[in-house]
Amino acid sequence: LAQWLYNNNEEEFMKEFDLKAWVCVSEKFEVVETTRNVIKQIHVGTYSLDDFNSLQNALKEQLSNKKFFIVLDDVWSDDGDKWSNFMTPFQQNGNKGSIVLLTTREENVASAVQNCHPYFLRKLSEDYCWSVFAENASFPQSNGRAALEEIGRKIVKKCD
Length: 160
Hints:
The chain is of the alpha/beta class. The protein folds into 2 domains: 1-112, no CATH class; 126-157, no CATH class. The protein has helices at 2-7, 12-15, 31-42, 52-63, 80-92, 107-112, 126-136, 145-159; strands spanning 19-26, 68-75, 99-104. β2 (68-75), α5 and β3 (99-104) form a beta-alpha-beta unit. α4 (52-63) runs parallel beside α5. The chain is elongated. The chain starts with a helix and ends with a helix.
């Protein structure tokens, strides 16, 4: 859902943003590295800054007087202190309507990020999951199709 929204530049909603960035955070959330990655996404050119304060100031400068849409994807860290430090430039800069969208599989991550209101996606039905899987899987047209379909259905069930 986040990826569809981010990539849909034709929608009026996305046309409103001056800056947009997609940063994969994953399991190891490092404030300095994640800040650097956001800057790389929104700034043409390079910043050879290594210390946290310089990076935060550079990010504030880039966000100043701009409306931004930043996706932080696949977040696992629920360290409130790290999130508080990281989010400061986003809260103090940017125009009204700016968005930081965070995707995670962990409920406790949402509570660690300030001003975050989680939206929980419902699970897809098993039949719908199968239709998506089958549409994207390549099944042979002859021998072996039934066996592969059975394996595919087991995969769908296991993925829940």
